[in-house]
Specification:
5 helices; 273 residues; globular; binds 2-amino-4-trifluoromethylsulfanyl-butyric acid; binds cobalt (II) ion; four-stranded antiparallel β-sheet; alpha+beta; Creatine Amidinohydrolase
């Protein structure tokens, strides 16, 4: 069952998504060698609570954090921990915030200090693929058009697409229909309609697409232990261009003021807001 949202509901989605984005902007200031992932989680939790939001992942089916922490080979759903970030790591922070009954969902993968150029390229292409997927998210098109756009962008550049995890509808619940896979054929799947809200979230690997789920039932890593990247926006389908409800603007602002911490660039050919 896919919900179509009213303008009033989309307005609430905008507010939840803005808080989600501002929280990731705050997290961005703390990403550096020597900081623990638990510290990032605490920063996020306090920021969300201070602004009247609810950290939606915390306690969700027993998940132990506000942020899902994705260091290097961790694909999704990593736990915040005492792990100390090191120069050369990449760390994804995936966040869902509930505000006034609606959810915003966004993820950004940060380089920690100087990172291997091959891994920086993975981050760049994954981020680009998010905007390529968003560009395909138009009323009258189908979910498979988004999936195919993301897959084609990444595979043409030599990366592999994780199959087991998908984007999703979002609204009152953090996970609603439809599923939004990052691979698949054009022209298949549910038709997109004005008022639908979806989270698009490519999870892209440097090596093979295969993943392993740890015995805690949550943490998911690449089988070959090569790095994985993950970027996510919450998007509303409109009459025309998709409206990106979350934004990396706050992250860019935070990182922009720090010469040692670059944000992940996109190339000129990528459509973005
Ligand atoms: N953005 C993640 C997702 O879409 C959030 C997971 S939160 C958790 O699956 F609670 F499931 F960990
Ligand atoms: Co999501």
């Amino acid at each position: 069952m896919i919900y179509v949202k009213t303008e009033e509901e989309i307005e609430k989605m905008r507010a939840a998504c803005d808080l989600t984005s501002r929280t990731l902007g705050e997290v961005a200031r703390w990403v550096r060698p020597g900081e623990t992932t638990r510290r990032l989680d605490t920063i996020a939790r306090e920021f969300v609570l201070d602004h009247g939001g609810k950290p939606a992942c915390l306690g969700y089916e027993g998940f132990p954090g506000t942020l899902c922490i994705e260091v290097n080979e961790t694909v999704v759903h990593g736990f915040p921990s005492g792990y100390v970030l090191r120069e050369g790591d990449v760390v994804g922070t995936d966040l869902v915030v509930e505000l006034d009954g609606y959810n915003g969902d966004s993820c950004y993968t940060f380089p920690v200090g100087e990172v291997d150029p091959k891994v920086m390229q993975l981050l760049k292409v994954t981020k680009e693929s998010l905007y390529v997927g968003i560009e395909a998210a138009r009323a009258g098109k189908r979910v498979g058009d988004i999936s195919n756009a993301v897959q084609t962008w990444c595979e043409r550049r030599g990366y592999s697409v994780v199959r087991e995890m998908c984007g999703h509808g979002i609204g009152r619940d953090m996970h609603e229909d439809p599923e939004v896979p990052n691979y698949g054929r054009r022209g298949i799947g549910p038709v997109l309609r004005k008022g639908m809200c979806i989270a698009i979230e490519p999870m892209i690997n440097l090596g093979s697409k295969n993943i392993v789920i740890e015995r805690n039932g949550w943490e998911c890593r690449t089988r070959d232990r090569k790095p994985s990247a993950h970027f996510e926006h919450t998007v509303a389908i409109t009459d025309g261009a998709p409206e990106i409800l979350t934004t990396f603007r706050y992250i860019d602002e935070s990182l922009g003021s720090h010469p040692l911490r670059e944000s992940v660039e996109e190339s000129e050919e990528t459509p973005h807001n």
